[in-house]
């Protein structure tokens, strides 16, 4: 194992911490955390989550206390770069999982997949093991459970020997669950991965590469799943909030 990567610089957007770290460095850092015993929580931050954090102080505190807060959407990337971040790309959840599994296979780090409908995590695990020879999947289970079952689930993950937990319960539930139970699982690192397990497991089709290059993955999802339109209202809300914050900052500099 090489020495630990240097800690990233940070920017704050609407009170939420965002680490100025690219995908490659994030991948290495998460693998290092997984090999430790710190129970490090990693957040894949998106614009919708930042908007939610404006009315949920508890969620915002979890984001700001995380070991890493990664840029997962084009809107955050644009704002972060305007504020001096050196980010060249967003750290997309699906791509991050693929890179982490490649690294976990090489380092023999057992992973656990937690989330999605019945069978989704198991199918995602099967596909990942086909792609990455030597990948150790310690376990997989759906994201449908009663909160009273959480201690039992955390204990099962601990007994599995997993060191890297991929938690796809959707935000803010996955962030709340990791903040409350990650240390009980014995995992060195836990990441909220949203609907990435559905994509990897084949339940949801990802946007073609051309759409991703244009940073229009969100629009592709909306076209295919019109019921998501309410969630997309977070984007204009985010733009308005950022504009107000920027105006306030400029006024502060002038005064």
Summarize the entry for a quick read:
This protein has 13 helices and 8 strands. The protein has 255 residues and is α/β, with parallel strands linked by helices.
Task: Give a description of the structure.
The termini are far apart. The chain is built from 13 helices and eight strands. The longest helix has 21 residues, at 234-254. It has one domain (17-210). The model has no long low-confidence stretch (mean pLDDT 88). With 255 residues, the protein is of the alpha/beta class. The strands form two sheets. A six-stranded parallel β-sheet has the order 4-3-8-7-5-6, with helices on both faces. A two-stranded antiparallel ribbon has the order 1-2.
How do the helices and strands line up, and which of them pair or pack?
Blueprint: E1 9-13, E2 16-20, H1 23-34, E3 40-45, H2 47-53, H3 57-65, E4 68-71, H4 74-82, H5 93-107, E5 111-115, H6 120-131, E6 137-141, H7 150-160, E7 164-168, H8 173-185, E8 189-192, H9 196-200, H10 209-213, H11 217-224, H12 229-232, H13 234-254
Parallel strand pairs: 3-4, 3-8, 5-6, 5-7, 7-8
Antiparallel strand pairs: 1-2
Number of helices: 13
Terminus-to-terminus distance: 51 Å
Main sheet makeup: 6 strands, parallel
Helix coverage percent: 40-55%
In the predicted model, the low-confidence regions spanning at least 5 consecutive residues are none
Structural class: alpha/beta
Topology pattern, helix = H, strand = E: EEHEHHEHHEHEHEHEHHHHH
Mean pLDDT score, rounded?
88
């Amino acid at each position: 194992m090489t020495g630990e990567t240097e800690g990233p610089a940070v920017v704050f957007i609407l009170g939420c911490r965002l680490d100025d770290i690219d995908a490659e460095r994030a991948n290495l850092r998460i693998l290092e955390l997984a090999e430790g015993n710190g129970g490090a929580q990693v957040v894949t931050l998106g614009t919708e989550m930042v908007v939610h954090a404006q009315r949920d102080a508890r969620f915002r505190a979890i984001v700001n206390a995380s070991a890493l807060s990664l840029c997962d959407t084009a809107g955050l990337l644009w704002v972060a770069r305007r504020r001096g971040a050196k980010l060249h790309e967003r750290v997309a959840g699906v791509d991050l999982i693929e890179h982490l599994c490649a690294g976990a296979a090489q380092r023999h780090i057992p992973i656990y997949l937690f989330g999605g409908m019945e069978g989704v995590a198991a199918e995602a695990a099967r596909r990942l093991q086909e792609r990455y020879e030597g990948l150790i999947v310690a376990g997989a289970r759906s994201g449908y459970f009663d909160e009273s079952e959480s201690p039992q689930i955390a204990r099962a993950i601990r007994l599995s020997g997993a060191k890297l937990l991929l938690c796809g319960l959707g935000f803010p539930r996955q962030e709340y669950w990791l903040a409350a139970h990650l240390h009980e699982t014995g995992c060195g690192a836990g990441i909220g991965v949203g609907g990435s397990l559905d994509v990897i497991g084949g339940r949801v089709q990802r946007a073609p590469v051309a759409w991703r290059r244009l940073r229009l993955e969100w629009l592709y999802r909306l076209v295919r799943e019109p019921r998501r339109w309410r969630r997309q209202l977070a984007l204009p809300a985010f733009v308005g909030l950022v504009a107000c914050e920027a105006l306030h900052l400029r006024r502060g500099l002038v005064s």
